[in-house]
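Q: What structure does this chain adopt?
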Amino acid sequence: MKVAIITDSTAYIPEQQREKNHIHMVPLSVVFGDKAYQEEVDITTDEFYEKVKTIKQLPKTTQPSIGKINEKLGELSKEYDQAIFITLSSGISGTYQTVRTAQSMADNIEVYPFDSEISCMAQGFYVLEAARLSKEGKDAPTILQRLDEMKKSLRAYFMVDDLSHLHRGGRLNGAQALIGSMLQIKPILHFEDTIIVPFEKIRTEKKALKRIFQLFDEDASSGEPLRATIIHANREADANEIMQQLMEKYPHVDFELSYFGPVIGTHLGRRVFRDRWYKK
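A:
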């Protein structure tokens, strides 16, 4: 069985890496006024952050249409027998449900939707692992079994500078956002049951980052092989400095730098950090 690996754009796997690993992508979009831009296609991350500097309110976002997904599956059915479609969390986007609908409509290809229950490079971890196993000739059920195993050890925590973006986009309830803003809290957030919820309430950015790295140390200090990523929103120099420090402290961990692209950046705003890892 030949298995296609598909993801949406919020995995933020660079185009060169997608091509190298035969990963197929369907983009989400950001909408400025009446003009929509497909992220990773019509607008780059750098272009997005430059553009939002000139406006007062962040844009809206839209998920891929059922037509776009069906079109992609139709193309792949000419070459593949099965397709695993790995989406961002179903709790923050309807993309997963749209793929489920497309699954029932697909001809000549077996479609397996996979809810990453997260986003960004943590979602990308699943995609890259699925692509590796597909190259080895594994079938879709075998690959999905491995992805479910990864979920047991995957951890992700993040800090945002302004909770209003998450509230406006419906990703954090009003009471949580209001209290956080009034008390000038920099809460550590994480995904729980597919949605974004506070993990701990911290008063300063410095303390919040320190706590995130303490959480990472709880797993990394065991010496077990880990794969981790530092994700930033328009703060590459700061993120790279942090990654270099962690690489020196944890030589047994495979680190990489990643980014929040336009769609996720819309909901988190600028000045965001996230740390994610899983046991290899």
